[in-house]
Amino acid sequence: MKSIRIENITKVYDLARPDERAVDDVSLTVAEGELFFLLGPSGCGKTTLLRMIAGLTWPTAGRIHLGDRDVTDVSVDKRNTALVFQNYALWPHMTVAQNVEFGPKMKGVAAAQRRETAGRVLSIVQMEGYVRRKPVQLSGGQQQRVALARALAAEPDCLLLDEPLSNLDAKLRLQMRSELRRLIKSTGATAVYVTHDQKEAMSMADRIAVMNDGRIQQIGTPRDVYDHPGDRFVADFLGEGNFIEGRVAKTGATTVIETPAGQLLARIDDGPAAGATVTCCIRPERVTLQMGAVAARPEAAALPATVVGGVFLGEMAQLTCRLANDDVWKVTVLGESASAAPPEGAAVTLMVAGEHVVLV
Amino acid sequence: MTVLPKDRLPLTTSPGERAARRRATAVVVVMIALLALLLLMPLIRAVSRGFTHDGKASVYWFGRILTNQILLSEMLNSVLLACTTTAIALLLAVPLAMIRSSVRFRGQGVLSVLILLPLILPPFVGAMSMSRLLAHYGVLNQILARVGILSNAAAGPDWLGGGFAGVAALQALHLFPILYLNASAALANIDPAYAQAARNLGAGRWRTFRSVTLPLMRPGLFAGGTIVFIWALTDIGTPLILGYERLTAVTLFKELARAEINPRTYSLVFVMLTGAVTLYVLGKFVFGRSVRLDSSKATVAVEAPRLGVVGTAWAWLAFGGVIGLAILPHIGVVLTAISARWVNTILPSQITFDHLRFVLVRPETRVCIMNSLRYAGASTAVDVVIGSIIAWLLVRTRARGRTLLDSTAMLPLAVPGLILAAGYVAITARGSWLESIGPMNNPFVILVIAYSVRRLPFIVRGVSAGLEQIPIALEEASRNLGASRPATVLRITLPLIAASVLAATVLTFSFAMLEVSDSLILAQTESHYPITKEIYRQATSGNRDAASVAAALGVYGMVLLGGSMALAGALLGRRLGAIFRA
């Protein structure tokens, strides 16, 4: 297994329009054995980037290194990556065993050893009983496992996965998340995983690169990118956010921000200078709802609001509340209080603790 | 944003891909040149002969056509015939396609294969028994007399009506499956939401069909309709066997068989060629251009009602009636081949298998069968190699000039066999350096070329359809796991398209065995006759035994084609129709 280093990769499909960049000046490093996610909406360039690592698409500028080797000019069959395709791309005319043995066969591995490798990886994915089957005789989940086994059998320098769970039904997809992570980690593979599903990324990744419009917006652990989104796009894409602009009134251990809806407190280490204009982001589940008028506390700001709508979802309720400046915020109420959520028109106070205010 | 290097053009493809693309482009150029040489050069030669008078370029011969009353009236006949044939074929095909797309019933799969049967049975073979079935003393009148509608068979009319109606009916019954396939494909591509929206807004069934469905089907119908029209316009087999000869195509056939050919004939070739190509272009690019559809996929589920016993019976009656009607002439041929005595009775009064045995031992017919096997075998081999390469270039490479190659390879659909044959006659005319491979000598080379060129679109379509079925990811996966380009073609692509290639090969071979226009024109010496020419000669000799010999040969031809079709159907399943689509 090897690390992956991508330096200033840019991809332009149509040279007549050099400003339309599928991937724009992306640099990142994936450590050995890391499960790294490329997360973003469709068309953000994540699959193009993955295909460039595999060598199926050619970068317009920039370099790609696998370990110490610069593979930018190496053709796809000499790169020793293994890609798990979105539709699995299992060859329909070959059995499961023939599919899995294909990679070793192309490397000139002897038949006996190929069979052993295939047996080993198929037992990892618990498909050892299906070697004689053709792909059409397998369910979607089983095909997915065989596709993974085929990639692992090639003993690649890095494993590439292109939305491997997107063709499974919702329930199986949830099951496969933890299973797939366990499988990949157990092989010690360096893996790059492309998805547009933020929950998949949050629950499986060691680190996530959030992409938008061909560029990387932020790289970090799932907790990093969720709790400290670097910009509004990342905050919005990874769950919901309430945004409000304000002016920094006072700096110190707690930064005081004056907004049209009232005063907010933020605990930020090196925040902006007094007088600066900032945008605050507060996650709906970080807001605490209290009935009636409540005073602010030293660690939490209090914003008066009116409930204007609500959806009861069983384990939680999602309310919309109108602030003093007519902004509408989303507030999530969890657990028992969901059933006892205030009715429409109720006057409430939104309590926002300082550590939950993020400046984006 | 990085600044892209300005001094050298940034690259979008890898050096390997670019080299592969250059190689592919070179092959495209070779293929286009080859097709130009084999297809365009003969045509240009033929046309230029029609515009040469006294060694100079001139419209003299062209003018002679326009002032010749007989030729003009033949042209009018030909156009009327083609119009009638196309109209009948439309009336047969569209309702069946509508039934097929709107309801489900038992046996639908079987019927959708059987409906291709008329397409593969050569109409000129069926034509041999038409007079037996429909003339004054024919089987139909015998039946009518038996059930008491006629006092006796002789009192019945001659149903062939001087030939025109018979030719049109036979051609339409042969060609309607082409329209049926195109109409079905067009219907399948129309989102049912369009029709549902019309019904929702208050339009009745008929109104919806007229105002929404039919306009959306138009491109498919036009594409198929032009092919049927061109075919009917230039068919010589059916009119020759039925003896209806006041047609431009028949006149051309007779003129081209002469040792010295009047330049006026080539001028006539030009008229036919221009008409056919113009129609093809109009059908494909002007009227046939598809309405811009928002979606070609179904966005709403449509529940095709499942027919009950009565409905199923009606559907079978509709399909079965048309199919039965279309193969009736061929049943007549089979009966002719096995009849020892068939005079003034509904069925033969005595059965014999002597004719079927006789054609296999008679030296003259054995020679013809061997000739056909050689011509068809060689041309099929040429087609498979060239057609597969072209299909590969079109579907799987990014070579330059692919559009031009595609149109050139499909051109034989627009150029009728009769016209192409005229081209080969022109380049091998007496005195030219190619005379030794001309029709009067050993026509092996030009027949193989003619057969190959005519059937090339089949192979290209068949193999392309196979290639398009393979997701590109299957090949990428192979490359990604370390297989080189050739290894990927060998291990992944070829095994996956083998069925398509084989099916297209089998059909190409069978069609070559029973090719009519080129065979009748390009083989003029007996020892080089292919089967079809021998059938034509025997069938038109007027001798009753000869008719049985012709019928026996026809039976073997039908068995060959039916068997090939069954094999191709087994190999391709539902995709079989793609080969015949316009």
UniProtKB/TrEMBL annotation, chain A:
<dbReference type="Pfam" id="PF08402">
    <property type="entry name" value="TOBE_2"/>
</dbReference>
<dbReference type="GO" id="GO:0016887">
    <property type="term" value="F:ATP hydrolysis activity"/>
</dbReference>
<dbReference type="InterPro" id="IPR008995">
    <property type="entry name" value="Mo/tungstate-bd_C_term_dom"/>
</dbReference>
<dbReference type="InterPro" id="IPR027417">
    <property type="entry name" value="P-loop_NTPase"/>
</dbReference>
<dbReference type="GO" id="GO:0005524">
    <property type="term" value="F:ATP binding"/>
</dbReference>
<protein>
    <recommendedName>
        <fullName>ABC transporter domain-containing protein</fullName>
    </recommendedName>
</protein>
<dbReference type="InterPro" id="IPR003439">
    <property type="entry name" value="ABC_transporter-like_ATP-bd"/>
</dbReference>
<feature type="domain" description="ABC transporter">
    <location>
        <begin position="4"/>
        <end position="238"/>
    </location>
</feature>
<dbReference type="Pfam" id="PF00005">
    <property type="entry name" value="ABC_tran"/>
</dbReference>
<keyword id="KW-0547">Nucleotide-binding</keyword>
<dbReference type="InterPro" id="IPR050093">
    <property type="entry name" value="ABC_SmlMolc_Importer"/>
</dbReference>
<keyword id="KW-0813">Transport</keyword>
<keyword id="KW-0067">ATP-binding</keyword>
<dbReference type="InterPro" id="IPR003593">
    <property type="entry name" value="AAA+_ATPase"/>
</dbReference>
<dbReference type="InterPro" id="IPR017871">
    <property type="entry name" value="ABC_transporter-like_CS"/>
</dbReference>
<dbReference type="GO" id="GO:0043190">
    <property type="term" value="C:ATP-binding cassette (ABC) transporter complex"/>
</dbReference>
<dbReference type="InterPro" id="IPR013611">
    <property type="entry name" value="Transp-assoc_OB_typ2"/>
</dbReference>
<dbReference type="GO" id="GO:0022857">
    <property type="term" value="F:transmembrane transporter activity"/>
</dbReference>
Automatic annotation (TrEMBL), chain B:
<feature type="transmembrane region" description="Helical">
    <location>
        <begin position="264"/>
        <end position="287"/>
    </location>
</feature>
<feature type="transmembrane region" description="Helical">
    <location>
        <begin position="24"/>
        <end position="44"/>
    </location>
</feature>
<feature type="transmembrane region" description="Helical">
    <location>
        <begin position="111"/>
        <end position="139"/>
    </location>
</feature>
<feature type="transmembrane region" description="Helical">
    <location>
        <begin position="489"/>
        <end position="514"/>
    </location>
</feature>
<feature type="domain" description="ABC transmembrane type-1">
    <location>
        <begin position="75"/>
        <end position="283"/>
    </location>
</feature>
<keyword id="KW-0472">Membrane</keyword>
<feature type="transmembrane region" description="Helical">
    <location>
        <begin position="307"/>
        <end position="328"/>
    </location>
</feature>
<feature type="transmembrane region" description="Helical">
    <location>
        <begin position="79"/>
        <end position="99"/>
    </location>
</feature>
<feature type="transmembrane region" description="Helical">
    <location>
        <begin position="220"/>
        <end position="244"/>
    </location>
</feature>
<feature type="transmembrane region" description="Helical">
    <location>
        <begin position="375"/>
        <end position="395"/>
    </location>
</feature>
<dbReference type="Pfam" id="PF00528">
    <property type="entry name" value="BPD_transp_1"/>
</dbReference>
<keyword id="KW-0813">Transport</keyword>
<dbReference type="GO" id="GO:0005886">
    <property type="term" value="C:plasma membrane"/>
</dbReference>
<feature type="domain" description="ABC transmembrane type-1">
    <location>
        <begin position="369"/>
        <end position="568"/>
    </location>
</feature>
<keyword id="KW-1133">Transmembrane helix</keyword>
<feature type="transmembrane region" description="Helical">
    <location>
        <begin position="407"/>
        <end position="427"/>
    </location>
</feature>
<protein>
    <recommendedName>
        <fullName>ABC transmembrane type-1 domain-containing protein</fullName>
    </recommendedName>
</protein>
<keyword id="KW-0812">Transmembrane</keyword>
<dbReference type="InterPro" id="IPR035906">
    <property type="entry name" value="MetI-like_sf"/>
</dbReference>
<keyword id="KW-1003">Cell membrane</keyword>
<dbReference type="InterPro" id="IPR000515">
    <property type="entry name" value="MetI-like"/>
</dbReference>
<dbReference type="GO" id="GO:0055085">
    <property type="term" value="P:transmembrane transport"/>
</dbReference>
